[in-house]
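sorry to bug you again but im stuck and you know this stuff better than me. theres a chain ive been looking at and ive put its sequence and its fold in token form underneath. id like you to explain what the token line says about the fold, in plain words if possible. anything you notice is useful, everything is just below.
___
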Amino acid sequence: MHKEEEMMKKAIFVLLTVLCCALLMNCIPVTHATTDYFTNSVVIIMGKCDTVTSPALWLFGFKVLFNKRVIIQANGGEDEKINALILPAKIGFYFGQENVMIHMEGTKGLFFRGEKSLFFQNTTQRIFAVCKVRDIWVTHDY
């Protein structure tokens, strides 16, 4: 009888431990992200973001690129949102993305950045881009 009581106590302890772990796992935030790949596409990007990297210099808020790498990233900061339309073949539409990174290789096109402009300095963080891209990766939350 003593062994049966001891086994029952162990079983209840294990069951309570598993139940507590299951409840704690539901409280832990999990980050889900996915990456979409496109090739030979036309890209239109507009919105607000803090990070735009490329090898060329901004000229009065504009940048014209030929076969360059560009990374546009919104990290969920204040008012950071990006809208992107990717055409043709495989179509991608990203509306109001707050946590997104757009990595483009072989970029040919025109970029406008508000905070780099002499004429539109009060439009900080604004980005507008129209370009043709050889390879593009869009990493975003879903």
